[in-house]
């Protein structure tokens, strides 16, 4: 168990460093999230009409079967989409998301280390163990970002970048997790 926790901690550090590089040093996330055109006017319209935190869809889902045809026509006419909305402002560099992110990285890396420990007897080569952890990231990317791309019409470029980020993150974490979680030497 100690080795799994150490692997989780080291994997979390590696993931955290990769996250900084991915979001602060590479241009790919900003390239897939353009700024809102006419931002001040759009925000003022939202401030006047949207009063609660939420994930909003438009056009709004029909309240009854009778509204389904009008909804379908609005959806086909466009625009359609989702809006993640927060009423109140916050400090964009608050330590809370960084602390929470590290804790989540630790939980994820520890889970990956545990899963690897269950399968490690069949994986004598370091590269096999790295691939195993990386495939967990592929699974996560497919199950989250690519599913959202399919069902929620999330733009392709954004979905691919987020998926690639998740896979690279699991590769980076896998490099240190696989170094710690290995078959017992006889």
Low-confidence stretches: none
Adjacency order of strands in the biggest sheet: 1-2
> How confident overall, as mean pLDDT?
95
Secondary structure tally, helices: 7
Structural class by SSE content? mainly alpha
Radius of gyration: 21 Å
| Number of distinct beta strands | 2
Distance between the termini: 19 Å
Biggest sheet character: 2 strands, antiparallel
Portion in helices? 55-70%
Please describe what this structure looks like.
- The chain is mostly helical and 186 residues long.
- It has a domain at 2-35 and 94-180.
- It has helices at residues 2-25, 28-32, 39-49, 68-77, 95-119, 126-152, 156-180; strands spanning 54-58, 81-85.
- Strands 1-2 form a two-stranded antiparallel ribbon.
- Helix 1 crosses helix 5, helix 5 (95-119) packs across helix 7 (156-180) and helix 6 runs antiparallel to helix 7.
- It is elongated and about 65 Å long.
- The model has no long low-confidence stretch (mean pLDDT 95).
Q: Which tags fit this structure?
A:
186 residues; elongated; 2 strands
């Amino acid at each position: 168990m100690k080795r799994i926790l150490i692997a989780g901690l080291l994997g979390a550090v590696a993931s955290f460093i990769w996250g900084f590089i991915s979001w602060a040093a590479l241009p790919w996330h900003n390239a897939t999230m353009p700024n809102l055109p006419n931002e001040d006017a759009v925000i003022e319209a939202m401030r006047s009409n949207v009063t609660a935190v939420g994930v909003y869809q438009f056009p709004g889902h029909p309240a009854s079967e009778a509204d389904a045809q009008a909804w379908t026509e609005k959806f086909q006419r466009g625009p359609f989409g989702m809006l993640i909305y927060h009423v109140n402002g916050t400090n964009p560099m608050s330590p809370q998301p960084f602390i929470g992110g590290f804790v989540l990285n630790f939980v994820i890396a520890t889970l990956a280390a545990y899963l690897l420990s269950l399968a490690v007897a069949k994986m004598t080569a370091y590269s096999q163990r790295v691939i195993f952890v990386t495939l967990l990231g592929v699974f996560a990317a497919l199950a989250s970002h690519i599913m959202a791309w399919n069902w929620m019409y999330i733009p392709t470029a954004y979905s691919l970048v987020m998926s690639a980020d998740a896979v690279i993150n699991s590769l980076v974490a896998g490099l240190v997790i696989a170094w710690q979680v290995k078959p017992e030497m006889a």
